[in-house]
Amino acid sequence: MLDLNATDEQLDSPMIFCSARKGVASYSPEEEGTDLRPLFETILEYIPAPQQDLEAPYQMLVSSIDYNDYVGRIAIGRIERGVIRQNQEIVLCNALKPDMAEKAKAVSLYVFDGLSRVPVQEAQAGDIIALSGIGDVTIGDTICAAEQVEALPFVEISAPTMEMTFSVNDSPFAGREGKFVTSRNLRDRLFRETLKDVSLRVSETDSTDSFNVAGRGEMHLSILIETMRREGYEFQVSPPRVLNKTIDGVLCEPFERVVIDVPEDCVGSVIEKMGVRKGELAEMTPMGSRTRLIFTIPSRGLFGYRNEFLSDTRGEGIMASIFDSYQPFKGEVRRRNTGSLIAFETGDAVAYGIFNVQDRGAMFIGPGVKVYGGMIVGVCPKAEDIVVNVCKKKQLTNTRAAGSDEALRLVPPRSMSLEQCLEFLADDELLEVTPESLRMRKRILDHSLRMKVLKGGKKI
Q1: Which residue of 115, 292, 309, 412 shows the fewest CB atoms closer than 10 Å?
Q2: What pLDDT digit, counting tens, does each position of 144-180 carry?
């Protein structure tokens, strides 16, 4: 708490000793509790209950949106005042749209019980409810009683700043692991997501098999990708790219405001890496044994840096970012200083083949993994791609000496998460996403064709 620059008020707060894994809490570190009752009792004692006005006309700010094929959009929020009843006449308004006043009816009401929704006839101030009956409701709208229409203030949702291309999987392993694999499945799922995610934009491309999906950042889009793969969808995505704007005739790009807390001995490394990525240091504040750094940096400058940041700070660094503004284009930012190890042929990776390749870089796969030509199987420390044969087997001979076969010592492969894969991708690479696997690959799988395109200077 001291290292995080806690205030006197925060240090004087009550202390409860809890174990989330065991589900117990106690007032003293010397005793072990039996349940979480001490935590709940402390919350009731120190945190005042909210003041509710049940007599005032109903009012609720919509903070989230869900969608159902039967009732359409569902507004979710906490009731600010009053009571609402099923089939009550309501009015939809918005603080940013003074002329907006749409009449509707509360068709159905639900309150939340854990992860489930329970239908109710009425709800009162303080309840978090889900309400259906308004066709075009969105986040930031206010739902009021008809007798008193008064919109609650809300910050306007910013436009997307990052875009990726979602396309049908066309790799040699396409259709083996997914349940929904066609362009029709992909299109319906993406456009259905826009009904409950108001900050997502989906647009069609010249190809019927690919769609441009724009969101508020890498995490926003990676959550959508992970959700779809868990639902059984199989597709492939391109590296993320920022959405530039032309303002007053000047090409501008989105900038992020990044707040970083790191140990003192890591400050120099962080400042150096952020400077290479066109970041500008705005503020540096010592906080005990740690230092807080605030940067403004192009959004594309953060691509691929989070994992590098954790390595430079030995896992002790904390980094958070938020959209700042559009500023003039800062020039070229190099995303990667490494190349890829690319599989030469289709087959099963074997220990002998991996053993002969692992000296060239870190591997992403182990023995027994199915690969195909053009699939990325590792990272090369040099800034160039290398084609390797991880399916190569040791040839048998007629004469076998007792000591001729040495034990093959394989370095454990690097396990890549979805976010790490998206950060790793180069401009000429794609990520194949299935319910069971994440495979990085080149856009052009054929090695000879890929070399012809590169030598010809064409953009892949």
Answers
A1: 115
A2: 998 888 999 987 777 898 999 999 999 999 989 999 9
**Helix (H) / strand (E) containing 305:** helix 305-312
pLDDT at 401 over 90: no
The Cα–Cα gap between 235 and 180 comes to 9
Total Cβ atoms within 10 A of residue 265: 12
Cβ contacts of residue 116 below 8 Å, gap of 6+? Answer: none
| CA distances (Å), origin 99, targets 11, 95, 151, 357 | 48, 9, 11, 67
Same CATH topology for 162-242 and 249-328: the answer is yes
Q: Tell me the C-alpha to C-alpha distance, in Å, between residue 270 and each of 103, 263, 298, 420.
A: 54, 10, 16, 19
So what's the architecture of 339-393+410-455 in CATH? Beta Barrel (2.40)
Q: Which CATH class is domain 249-328?
A: alpha beta
Cβ–Cβ under 8 Å, residues 274 and 319: no
Q: Quote the tokens at residue 135.
A: 């066709």
Residue 97 confidence (pLDDT): 85
Residue with tokens 């969808």: 233
pTM over 0.70: yes
Parse the chain into domains and list their residue ranges: 8-46, 59-145, 162-242, 249-328, 339-393+410-455
